[in-house]
Predict the structure.
Amino acid sequence: MFTPDITAEPPIRADALVELRDVRFGYGQRVVLDGISLTVPRGKVTALMGASGGGKTTVLRLIGGQQRAQAGQVLFDGQDMGRLRDAQLYAARRRMGMLFQFGALFTDFSVYGNVAFPLREHTNLPERLIRDIVLMKLGAVGLRGARDLMPAEISGGMARRVALARAIALDPDLVMYDEPFAGLDPISLMTAARLIRRLNDALHLTSLLVSHDVPATFQIADQVILLADGKIAAQGTPKEVRASRDPLVRQFIGLDADGPVRFEYPGPTVEQDFGIAPLPRRKGRRSHAQGGAG
């Protein structure tokens, strides 16, 4: 008689390019991710949101292999990133593109040189073919005519688009975006948002987007995951997340200053920090607070 192995790991989801299973991670005594499980579906735009310090960028680092989970699994196309050897890890990373916050362009390279860099670094393609690929990628982000400019000669929004062209230079399966809208004016912001959506669909990419910009992110995302206190506070389509009645989710979506997320970081009281002691009360006299003349 066949007895199923109840200790066996659950099967890999065919529709998931990235999967986190009961992942725990922290820095010293500070727990950042406390047993979270999530999936990033193939071909979709998934947004990872939450308050600052909630672990969003940490998730990107775990997927890219810069950090390793202290417990649980981080799977990329079925591979456990925490168990890969260096050669396997580098091969997996070549299937990922990364758009860093503020672009992180090489300041000594031209726009063309920035986009050509990963092709020259990771392939043996002839320079003539590299040129064609670079111009196609720059054309996809509307900057083919800016190929000879230096990063100091372009705007912040243009720099972000150059960084996106560089991120897709190797035709990755997964593109990760770390705050792609930070510091952009409204026109550049919406241009970047529409570009992420359009490239995801046209190139059959899978996109994982870390962002604090609720309107732009909800406009382009298929799935939204909201992290809070090391857990997943909400997960679903933008419409489903907007309908959440959770106070923390309502505070984040509504952009409210007051709510479960406090302005003051927990710490000693003012009295403890400054050594302020309450004034002693004298017997037989009423204090001003009690309405006495004093």
